[in-house]
Design a protein that fits this description.
The complex is a heterodimer of chains A (110) and B (862). Chain A is an alpha/beta fold and 110 residues long. Helix content of chain A is 45%, strand content 30%. Chain A has a single domain, classed as Transcription Regulator spoIIAA (2-Layer Sandwich). In chain A, strand 5, helix 3 and strand 6 form a beta-alpha-beta unit. Chain B has 862 residues and is α+β, with helices and mostly antiparallel strands. Chain B has 16 helices and 29 strands. The chains are: A alpha/beta (110), B alpha+beta (862).
Chain lengths: 110, 862
């Protein structure tokens, strides 16, 4: 798992590549918590390089959503692969996370 | 609360140094306090007793003095009476001497020349003042009452003048107290000495009680009277004067102020005032309630009220405040000559000492506070001394407390400072700072500890590095093992390994090799001498050789020979070698070829005939002799025949008694499990060895089971693996699932579903399933039957039926859900498969999931 953090127009973009297994999820959780701690309000997860996510990974996204909602922030996700999009649909989380195709789409809509 | 070690050591040092100090001080203080209290109490009592005795003695001695004084006075009076009688016998008159009358004292010209005021001789005026009166010690004076004419008594007076020297002489024997010596005659003449005036003209001695009573008496008698001149109460001793024929001529008497005989001045000096003395007579006729003690004399008789000689002495009684005390005193006076009784007098607790003779008693009353002044003072000074000592002791204790406290404080710092420094270094070491050093030296055994600490850093660093390397090596070695079972038509093959160290020297492998007829499967089992990292490296080198040569077409013995040549050169001089069993299997060919390089022969079992055999052959271990020529062996297998290739770790496994597992056991297990597939037999064997060596594994174990079957190899037919709850779940199973998927040509999406389902299931088991912290196996098997993928998970965790797990509240908006996140894993599982069955078997959860790989997702309904 590799993570890359960028900032564009006030939106923090977290690009996650590879597998979000237990270790990866933990790493991402720490990263997200640090970002929330530092006061970021707009988070965009770029999952175009993501191969695997499980319910723990979803939990971290929900955590970010819940925290940011209180601070009137937003969480969006872009570039998910079709089989991962299916996980969002099955879990119903596609209703709470705006899912965008390309990163640029996401940025213009945020 | 967490106390620092320094405080603890400080407290311990303080407790050990001050504890005994305070204990001994406390005990001594208590003991000495009690001793002082006892002593001062006893002393007080003793002293009080002594003082009371002294008071009693005072009373007795005063009585004695009084008696003695009385004797003197009696003798004087008697002598005077005798002299007077003699003067009257001689009838010699003195006409020369001038007779001084009492009235002469009113006129200084008529008064005797030596008449002057004299201490003690005073008269109490009607207004209560003392007025000195003039007395003449040179001459007696004569008083004549108005009833007596001078000429009638002149002759008597001239006779009495002869007594002047006698009277003067009597002074020598008398006390300093003012007194009068009188001679009263029947004729009415009254001579008094020292001469003085001031007599009332009415006064006639012949009217007085004492005179009239002595007329009838022949002995002296004691009276209390009021002096007509001084108006003081006086004690009068009278003695009759009789002529030789017994005719009563008159009476000689002596007046002494009552207070003068009391000796109270001396007492007051001794007792610092506030003392009262009484001369009393015990009047048995009186009312004992308040009239038991008739006061005969007391010091302030002359001061208490106005008296007149004519009215006589008013009877006064000695009374006390408390009737019981009075009773006690009276009883004591009845029983004893002298004694002391405590009682209350005029509202003050007092001590009453008495001494009695047959006629009267002498009583001294002293207030307790006066009496106990000395005892109190002595006891007080004793207590003061003790207090002083206690104060000094407290002061010394205080100084010692501070002193010991300082020593303990700095001592504890000295002890703990290196300790704290060590803690700091240890903490830094634990934090990964291997450069942490201690520079402090203590000069004692702790220096060894400091040195050890300083050595620890580099050693730890080394160890950490080694550990990291070992982990890496382990990972590399795992990667070098086959990821999945090989697929070769006509054979069911399973291999497994168990290391005793992190890395080991045992090795098994499956590889595609080139042979004359095309491709074949090479099965290798090897064992490097020793285990651990060096063996693992030799194994890696051998494996490298095998894989390099796999592309080159050659016979089994040529392959072994080539590898031996390289390894022999590499291992030359190290003494290391490895044994190896290499077997070549051709697709659907019952004929197998093998080379044995010093390895134990493979075990061969035919279940149909229930016969065991061996695949043996000649050959020395690899790496020993470079030019050694190996030879291939060949055999033909029947369908169902089983070959077991293993390393010596299997039969040389020892139980707790040291007995080896042995080949017999091994053969029995193979026979028992022969009906199972290759993997079933292998797992049965390896589990049995694992259970057998309960004390821990001593050697690596590698086992490969080959079962000759008639049909095709069903790739992934049943693909199973075992993992434990202690392993990194994802990394452990993900490559296997991947391999299974690839082998079965499953699309990426299905592989993802399979991975996600297993991930959620296993995570769930590992996170929530175990009540202890032990290692537990989790068995997973995957199989494909047409389009149906079956996933079977067995675990011995707590019973849990996934079908009964509550669904997440998907219809409720996220913000309003009770459990916004929980249950999502199970929800995902249910949506990724098409069938779920749960059973609890032999203490195990057995979950069987089925998935139709041709369909897209269809959620399973509970």
């Amino acid at each position: 798992m590799a993570m890359n953090q960028e900032n564009e127009n006030g939106v923090t973009i977290l690009a996650v590549d590879g597998n979000l297994d237990a270790e990866g999820t933990q790493e991402m959780e720490e990263k997200v918590l640090a970002l929330l701690e530092s006061g970021e309000t707009k988070l965009l997860f770029d999952f175009s390089g993501l191969d695997y996510i499980n319910s723990s990974g979803l939990r971290v996204l929900v955590l970010a959503y819940q925290r940011l909602k209180k601070a009137s922030g937003t969480v969006a996700i872009c570039g998910v692969k079709d089989y991962i999009q299916e996980v969002f649909e099955v879990s119903g989380y596609d209703k709470i996370f705006p899912l965008y195709g390309a990163r640029a789409d996401a940025l213009t809509n945020m | 609360m967490k106390l620092s070690i320094r405080i603890k050591i400080f407290v311990v040092l303080l407790a050990f140094s001050l504890g005994p100090l305070f204990l001994s001080r406390g005990l001594m203080g208590k003991a000495s306090g009690e001793a002082v209290r006892d002593m001062s109490g006893e002393l007080h009592k003793e002293l009080l007793f002594i003082v009371a005795s002294e008071l009693e003695y005072n009373a007795s001695s005063l009585l004695t003095l009084l008696e003695r004084g009385g004797e003197t006075m009696k003798l004087a009076v008697r002598a005077l009476a005798v002299d007077t009688s003699r003067v009257f016998e001689s009838k010699k008159t003195d006409v020369e001497s001038k007779i001084y009358y009492s009235i002469d004292f009113a006129d200084p010209d008529e008064a005797p020349p030596d008449a002057m005021t004299h201490t003690g001789y005073s008269r109490q005026t009607m207004s209560g003042r003392e007025r000195p009166i003039k007395v003449s010690f040179g001459f007696p004076s004569v008083h004549l009452s108005h009833r007596v004419r001078e000429k009638d008594v002149l002759k008597d007076l001239q006779l009495l003048q002869q007594l002047t020297p006698t009277l003067r002489g009597l002074i020598q024997d008398m006390t300093d107290a003012p007194f009068w010596i009188n001679i009263g005659l029947e004729s009415g003449a009254f001579l008094t000495y020292p001469g003085h005036g001031g007599f009332p003209s009415m006064y006639d001695h012949r009217d007085q009680d004492w005179y009239q009573e002595s007329k009838e008496s022949n002995t002296w008698k004691f009276y209390l009277t009021v002096d007509p001149v001084t108006r003081a109460t006086v004690s009068t001793i009278a003695f009759p004067i009789r002529s030789n024929d017994g005719t009563f001529l008159g009476c000689a008497s002596l007046d002494l102020p009552a207070f003068a005989i009391m000796g109270e001045e001396e007492l007051k000096e001794r007792w610092e005032g506030e003392i009262r003395s009484f001369m009393v007579s015990r009047d048995s006729a009186g009312d004992t309630q308040d009239k038991g003690l008739l006061i005969l004399a007391q010091k302030d008789s002359r001061k208490s009220g106005h008296r007149h000689w004519m009215s006589g002495v008013e009877q006064e009684w000695l009374t006390f405040d408390d009737p019981i005390g009075t009773e006690v005193l009276l009883h004591a006076m009845d029983m004893q000559k002298s004694g002391a009784v405590p009682l209350s007098y005029k509202g003050e607790d007092s001590l009453c000492a008495f001494a009695s003779n047959n006629f009267y008693s002498f009583i001294i009353i002293a207030p307790k506070r006066v009496v106990s002044r000395l005892p109190n003072a002595v006891a007080g000074s004793l207590e003061y001394l003790f207090d002083e000592m206690r104060d000094i002791s407290f002061m010394i204790s205080g100084i010692m407390l501070i002193f010991t406290g300082l020593i303990a404080w700095f001592g504890s710092r000295a002890i703990t400072r290196p300790l704290l420094a060590m803690t700091d270094v240890a903490r830094r070491l634990a934090g990964g700072d291997f450069s942490a050093r201690m520079t402090q030296r203590t000069g004692d055994e702790r220096d060894d500890l400091v040195d050890s600490f300083n050595d620890m850093g580099p050693k730890l660093k080394e160890l950490m590095q080694l550990n990291k390397d070992m982990e890496l090596a382990q990972e590399v070695q795992r990667l070098l093992l086959p990821h999945s079972e090989p697929c070769q038509d006509g054979f069911d093959i399973s291999g497994g390994i168990s290391y005793c160290d992190q890395t080991g020297g045992d090795y098994y492998d499956f590889l595609n090799v080139k042979c004359q007829d095309g491709n074949a499967l090479g099965v290798v089992v090897g064992d490097v001498s020793g285990h651990g990292l060096p063996s693992a490296m030799v194994m890696a080198a051998a494996r490298g050789q095998f894989h390099t040569l796999s592309k080159i077409m050659m016979g089994p013995h040529e392959r072994m020979q080539s590898i031996n040549e390289v390894l022999s050169r590499d291992l030359d001089g190290t003494g290391r070698f490895l044994t190896m069993f290499y077997m070549r299997l051709k697709e659907n060919d019952p004929s197998v070829k093998w080379v044995r390089a010093g390895h134990d022969p493979a075990i061969r079992y035919n279940p149909d005939t229930d016969t065991f055999g061996e695949l043996s052959g000649e050959g020395i271990p690899l790496g020993v002799l470079e030019e050694y020529v190996y030879e291939s062996n060949e055999a033909t297998l029947e369908d169902g025949e089983i070959l077991v290739l293993s390393t010596d770790g299997v039969w040389e496994a020892r139980n707790s008694e040291g007995t080896m597992f042995g080949k017999k056991r091994m053969l029995a297990i193979i026979r028992e499990n022969a009906h199972k597939n290759a993997e079933g037999i292998r797992l049965a064997l390896m589990d049995a060895v694992d259970i057998y060596q309960a004390n821990g594994q001593e050697d690596d174990i590698a086992v490969v089971v080959i079962k000759k079957i008639s049909g095709k190899c069903m790739p992934g037919d049943i693909f199973s693996f075992r993992m434990t709850n202690k392993e990194n779940c994802f990394r452990c199973f993900q490559p296997k699932v991947e391999a299974f998927g690839e082998a079965n040509g499953l699309p990426g999406k299905i592989i993802f579903h399979l991975t996600l389902v297993l991930d959620e299931l296993i995570t769930n088991i590992i996170d929530y399933g175990y009540a202890d912290f032990d290692e537990h196996p989790i068995d997973i098997s995957l199989s494909m039957d047409g389009d149906i993928l079956t996933i079977r998970v067995e675990d011995d965790s707590e019973p849990f039926n996934i079908l009964e797990a509550p669904e997440p509240e998907l219809d409720v908006p996220l913000e309003e859900r009770d459990r916004p996140i929980g249950g999502m894993g199970i929800h995902l599982i249910k949506n990724m498969v098409h069938g779920i069955e749960y059973e609890r078997e032999d203490g195990k959860n057995v979950l069987t999931l089925s998935k139709d790989t041709s369909k897209s997702c269809t959620p399973v309904k509970g």
